[in-house]
Amino acid sequence: MAPSSVLAVGFVLALFSLSFSTASAGIVETSFHVKNLTVNRLCQNQVITAANGSLPGPTLRVKEGDTVVVHVFNKSPYNLTIHWHGVFQTLTPWADGPEMVTQCPIRPGGNYTYRFNLSGQVGTLWWHAHSQWLRATVYGALVIRPRDGQKYPFVKPYREDTIILGEWWNANPIDVENAALTTGAAPVNSDAYTINGWPGDLFNSCRPSKIYKLDVVPGKTYLLRIINAALNAQFFFKIANHNLTVVGADAAYTNPFPTDVVVIGPGQTTDVLLTANQSPGLYYMAAHPYASAAGVPFNANTTTAILAYPKAKQSTPLLPVLPAFNDTPTAFRFSSNLTALVTSPFWSPVPKTVDENMLVTIGLGISACGTNQTCGGIFGQRMSANMNNHSFVFPTRMSLLEAAFRNVSGGVYTTDFPDQPPLTFDYTNVNNSFNQSLLMTPKLTSLKKLKFNATVQVVLQNTALIGVENHPMHLHGFNFYVLAQGFGNYDPINHPKNFNLVNPQERNTLGVPVGGWAAIRFRANNPGVWFIHCHLDVHLPWGLATAFYVENGGTPESTLPPPPAGFPQC
Ligand code: C2O
């Protein structure tokens, strides 16, 4: 790339630093107008669905403690909801957003106002559409800074920036999803990955100036807020010649963790400090997939952005060497070495007693094709995915939350999601991968009911059915503590001996090790219906999901209020 074209990207930077001003102290109010937008990527024009005419959508900037009010106007041709990924939504589950879980969609032409408070978390979260695959292009950052008078527990960065990793199809993602769901086969892979909306220099973009560029001042320290908004790709992320220090993940502070590579699954965020301490030059930031499922085709491209020092002499940025696509040891080292900063004002100690102890398998399977249909999945059936052999189906009549609130569960959901796998088998033994007696999975809408304030421990156990894979599991409404992770089958006698009950990382999304398990714990201190699911969008419509229905606690502060005015109806 010519230096002149590098210089020509300044306006792109300006576009992404657009933000909302705080209207009055404590309330951040804005509008999202979601509608068609024609953009050019990979040398072709594509009509996408976008918020406020930009890709990524607007960055929402708040201070801890603020109330957020977002008026969403759906001017798109699709049903729409917006999810505020990682926000606790204390007593506001009506604003959480997953379609048919907490709300019916906003119909084309309709609108809905999301109103919620952001307390008890500082760092980086994000927002995205939670209807079909719309989040491919309807997403943006949610930046939470300390409230006035409070500070970061690390050196004050000179500047902050947001790095959002995304995924791009030369097609309408909704059409890609629907085509796959019609035949029961796997959807086609994306055509590119993106950083702040742009594939970067390693793709033919026909517009060489369109690459994201971060200009740095030598010697200064920057806080980079890295978000993985891709649908189906986990990433290795590096910046050539630069070391990074992780200081937060999923809007929870971590102990400083030095690394040269960040491993980040869809739904996760990682805050890193970067010091511009290298010789003046141009350095690529680059990301390519961590592809944990052996033998499954994936898009192996690399997306890039540029870290630029002033007076750089060379015209070609230096490219970092990324780990191999299947470098599970590197992925595991990164994600199992993060620990919580227990001196954070937002830290609460791990509950030592457990009220609900669950072992939940997560993995793939098949479900019946349907009479008189032809299916493109394995064994001529539909590709399917499940938790404890229940493959989740979204209700159609009413959202789970509304049905729970109105006490009309009949015909909407059941509460028999099992605490243990219905069948015990050697979960991670690849000899079982195509055992048809284990693969067939019923389609169900079953929830797990929890008493208010119950402490819940869930061991997520990957299975080898169809194939082992690292699944980024996301829980709505809570952070969970990650007590331990490992490979193979979970051992309930020996593995708890190594649980970290002192300073485990807190997350809302965790990549459960491929062919392995993770033990997580949380306190169900928020009444509502909270989705838990794989954040790979290929697996969510296949059913890799369930929900926790947390009951009211018996005091006004622990009782679910009625839905707000204008709540969408089905
Ligand atoms: Cu980021 Cu249920 O979603």
UniProtKB/TrEMBL annotation:
Organism: Smallanthus sonchifolius
Top-level taxon of origin: Eukaryota
Name of this protein: Uncharacterized protein
